[in-house]
Specification:
The chain is mainly α. 48% of the residues lie in helices and 3% in strands.
Length: 486
């Protein structure tokens, strides 16, 4: 088993390094430069952030431990993470990604924008949005994390704030960013804005959407957030088309490929022998005749789609031809983007809010309309033809004529399917989909896992635990729930 742990470590480190090579017209040690534009640092963070998200240190452990993808057993991927063995190197690299590569450089960029001869409020807002989202991801992985005292040059050892404090702080950062954004001003990060090219109208919509998603994560633990959710639904101004999707776009140019592609290229001769269809995803799709199946997965040698369970050995025929389905080639192509927020994600969350009556009157008809639109958009995003996408969405059970729990389960099922290739977002969604034991889907602890309970968080970075005396005295258990997780 050790060789598989080591493989995952090496994949993460090498993939992360390869993803940050050619996008930047900037010194790779921006802190040492005499004068750096805020846009340079912003671009550096964008590259590093998505390099982390799509690297072996992040993508592999979450996809396998969450049971949204399978590994085919020791003869194929053999990822130890399916047994909840998360390498301390992976944990440390991801922690440094959020705190050093991303947040620290964003704080420097914000400082530069404030000290410019003409304060660039739009650039400050852009950096703050990315900063808030990085901290959202950090707290969703570790729970209590440094926030209020972090990046303060006068505080050497920042305290670890509670997740409740961090999430409320993130909401404040989003609100402050919205209050300073001004699409009429020419000063903004444009050339180095890989997401929207400096289009502040799009940034406003994104920021509202990210705030909305954060509130939806918080509302079950803090019902008072329902009022804010209702207000946002009424006022609108969130992402309202696929044109507003937040993506980091990779390319086919050497050095600029998606790290997921590099994993297969370096270790599997470009063939996917490491990531398989999990029955947790494939079976519900087959039950509904989902048109995304041939996009998400490849059939076995005999043309049949077959899923696997966690750590289950892949099935072969007598000639050693693979019969189990691997994840589709299109999801590991060189230029597959890192999707950070999508229109369908927005629609699913809005459908849930109307179904549950979060700050608005319960409206199952409205929820059904948004739900079907979300499913259609999810299909379109992955290349399903428009007529097939619409037909499939309209074939789903009408949320307005089933009981609320069934309707909510249907929404969560489609969210789970949509997030198959976005394991971090799926990890958050699974935990928030129901109280413990009532999540969708109903996962089971792998028989060979190192714990007797389902994983719900990561260990803290060993380096942080050693260097910061204000870090927790010991790591929480991998199965311990966070503040938001009921």
């Amino acid at each position: 088993m050790k060789k598989y742990i080591l493989s995952a470590i090496l994949l993460g480190v090498l993939s992360g390094m390869s993803s940050c090579s050619d996008w930047l017209d900037v010194n790779h040690n921006p802190n040492a430069a005499e004068k750096v534009e805020p846009g340079y640092l912003f671009n550096y963070v964008a590259v590093a952030w998505s390099g982390t998200r799509t690297s072996g240190d992040f993508y592999i452990p979450i996809s396998q431990s969450l049971q949204i993808q399978a590994d085919g057993g020791d003869s194929y991927g053999g990822w130890a993470e399916g047994n909840y063995v998360i390498s301390p190197y992976s944990v440390g690299n991801v922690w440094k990604g959020y705190y050093n590569s991303s947040a620290n450089n964003l704080k420097l960029a914000i400082k530069m924008a404030r000290e410019a001869s003409v304060v660039n409020n739009n650039a400050i807002a852009q950096c703050n949005v990315i900063f808030a989202e990085n901290m959202y991801e950090a707290t969703m992985m570790w729970g209590d994390v440094p926030f209020t005292e972090a990046w303060n040059e006068n505080i050497r050892y920042p305290k670890f704030d509670s997740q409740e404090v961090v999430l409320n702080g993130i909401i404040d950062v989003f609100d402050n960013a919205l209050s300073t954004m001004d699409p009429s001003l020419p000063s903004t990060i444009t050339e180095y804005d890989v997401y929207y090219g400096g289009d502040m109208a799009k940034w406003q919509k994104l920021t509202r959407s990210l705030k909305f998603r954060t509130l939806m994560v918080m509302v079950d633990k803090d019902p008072s957030k329902a009022e804010m959710i209702g207000k946002m639904l009424t006022e609108g101004g969130m992402i309202d088309s696929a044109a507003g999707n937040m993506e980091f776009k990779y390319s086919t140019n050497s050095g600029n490929e998606n790290p997921k592609y590099k994993i297969l290229e370096k270790y599997f001769n470009g063939q996917n022998q490491a990531f398989f269809a999990h029955n947790n995803v494939l079976k519900p799709m087959q039950d509904l005749n989902d048109p995304r199946i041939p996009v998400f997965f490849e059939p076995g040698h005999d043309g049949v789609f077959r899923g696997l369970n966690t750590r289950q050995a892949a099935e072969e025929d007598k000639d050693k031809n693979l019969l189990s389905s691997v994840i589709g080639k299109s999801l590991y192509r060189k230029d597959i983007p890192d999707l950070l927020y999508s229109y369908q994600e927005q629609l699913f969350l809005e459908a849930e809010a109307y179904l549950r009556g979060l700050g608005v009157a319960k409206d199952a008809v409205k929820a059904n309309e948004l739900y079907r639109k979300a499913v259609k958009e999810a299909c379109l995003y992955y290349g399903v033809e428009a007529s097939a996408a619409e037909k499939y969405a309209n074939s789903l059970a009408d949320l307005s004529i089933v009981d609320e729990q069934t309707a909510l389960k249907n929404i969560h099922m489609q969210q789970w399917i949509d997030l198959m290739d976005r394991p971090f977002e799926a990890f958050v969604q699974w935990r928030r989909s129901g109280s413990e034991g009532n999540e969708y889907p109903a996962l089971e602890v792998p028989a060979t896992a190192i714990t007797k309970d389902l994983i719900r968080r990561w260990d803290y970075s060993p380096e942080e635990m050693t260097a910061n005396p204000n870090s927790p005295k010991s790591n929480p258990n991998l199965w311990d729930k966070m503040w938001f997780d009921l």
